[in-house]
Please model this.
Amino acid sequence: MGQMVNVIQSVFNRGELSPRIIGRLDLDAYYNALKSSTNFIPFPQGAITKRNGTYYVADVKDSADQTILIPFRFSTVQNYIIEAGDLYFRFYRNRGQVESAPSTPYELTTPWPESVLNELKFVQSYDRLYVFHKDYQTRVITRTGDTAWTIANLSFTDGPFLPTNATAITLTPSAATGAITVTASSSLFVAGDVGRQIRMKVGASNWGYATITAFTSATVVSATVVNTLTTTGATTSWNLSYFGGTLGWPSVGTIYEQRFIMANTASYPATLFASETGAFSDSVSMSPTNASGTVVDSNGFVYTIGDDQVNAIEWLSSGRILMIGTSGAEHSMTGGTASSYAPVTPSNVTIKRETKIGSRSGVRAHRVGNAILYASKSGLKVRELNYDFGIDSYISRDITIFNDHITQSGIVDCDFQDEPDPTLWCVREDGKLIGFSYEREQQVEGWHKHTIGGVDSAVKRVACIPKPDGSGDDLWMIVSRTIGGNTVQSIEYMTDYYSPEIYGKASSFFVDSGLTYDGRFDATLTPAATTGTGIVFTAGSSVFTAGMVGDQIRAGAGRAIITGYSSGTSVTATITVAFASTSAVASGDWSIATKDIVGLTRLNGETVSVCADGYYAGDKVVSGGGFTLDDYASIVHAGFGYSSELKTLPVELKSLGTIAGRTRRTHEVNIYLTNTIGLRLGNEGNSVIEVVPFGGGTENLNEGPSLYNGILTREPPLDYDKEGVLNLSHIWPTNITVNYIAQKLTING
Model:
């Protein structure tokens, strides 16, 4: 006789576990995780829901070129996504593209070709974005309006300078001010020195400096004096600057303790350059001393990290202390001791190696609370750098240890979404999108993977900015697909979590690269009668068009077919279902329902999945820029369909010890569902039975079909096996949310 047992899983927020974890009954995570999860997102509270679709905004300028996304967060209500492509920036705000004229994207010319875009790094300060690359002078991009962006070289004044000359080589300026020549006593200069600074102290005078403007020979250059040299004469007291020419420019930066901190030039990859305090905007003062040569606390400084090997600095993260990620280790920078948190000054800098992991070049690190999440140098792991008070040291914890398969092929880009639920979104080299649900205080750490709808779809880049209303963050992405036989890259954002209580059931958006027809208007509507033909309907503002003839007016249960167009505020119609009264219908309480969906020219020849007023309206082939519905609908979402699937882990019971190797059979499944339409249930071999079909809808505007809420009980015709894995899948453009899965099993042996 077999043993009857009941098993329930009510938490899914540990996400998809590695195959290497199968059988680890000692891990609490095992009982809160899944064998696989595709296009599902776990809630921190425990339930799991189908991810929402992506809304199409625009194609990138040239789909054949490399393109990246840069987030620009100015305030809670003024935020931009920057499309950075070959020698240009384009801008997006309020979930749309910024235009200089109708159908003309606003564009800013930039110096970076597509070949270097993946190497760009950036830091923002208010309305300025500083962009770094080792081969290009640092640029500052300034915003003064949606279509008012400027780009300029970031000028560095008075440094940073290499150590003072310790050789017998002298420099002689031809004059103390203005345009001068500088003559070296032996070969010193190269053609690439144009743009570098020279700092000199002639005799007992104060330090001054000039900028090299032209190269004449190895011993002679032209220059322009910036800080007067006071006098002339040969001097051995001189420095050349670190930046410019063949030495390169900083490739990463941040702002820390009111200093502009930069690092990693081509010639000095492990060196940090700190500005004077508060001395940065469109220029940065790097002065190492005052004019007399005295070092004060506010001066800039240069610091090279000493380590057992030269590790290029890949990221800087500002917090209470400055954390530094290099290609081979992680360091902290403080003033004095780490515990004192004293300000950093030229004479009070302490840099310590905290961990020795290393970071992947080109992948941003993200500070989340007190922790920093970053990709390891291989890109195959994600680490959490955090201070452990128990051991009085920093640790770099592998947060993919139980999910090592999820990052296969390596991470190439990532960004952090703070709200509605904290999630690190990552792009793998193979174009897969993966997410890490992360709420450290609540021990929520769950990885999940996602496939984006469309042929040959691949996610290229991601970025997060606050939503237009400030209620959370939008995840933006560049997605590549084959459309009409051509590779097309488009910019899209993931839509909001499905919330019928707030937005209505018809607002469900579960298609990718989708667009929406919304027949609701911001105007009142007044019918001249409640029944009859040739009835005049008057709108409170201009909303009607001639193309609406044949469409349906809906208000409550009332229905009318438009038969004539008079003006933007007046049409005639035949009422097919009586209206409640001749009183004005409030804005938002009525709509124009249509059968003819247009505006999809870019998808001609493609098959799209359609959700109409909350129903799955079938798949349609786009022809002539649109398609025809079988019935009228007020809100229609159309785009590439995608399916969602989850598989439970093999059933194990702590109370019985292990039941590995023993056959079991599921007799009954109880699934608690929320706001669900459609579900398929089967075993791991996909012997699928549909257990929640589509229901019939209602006649009321925007109510859509009934949503399933509660416990669904089924007795699936499953055979005995040795795992008891269940497969839940969903293929329609509607929602599914699973709160728990309970099984009644017979265990043999």
Confidence is low (pLDDT under 50) at residues 695-702.
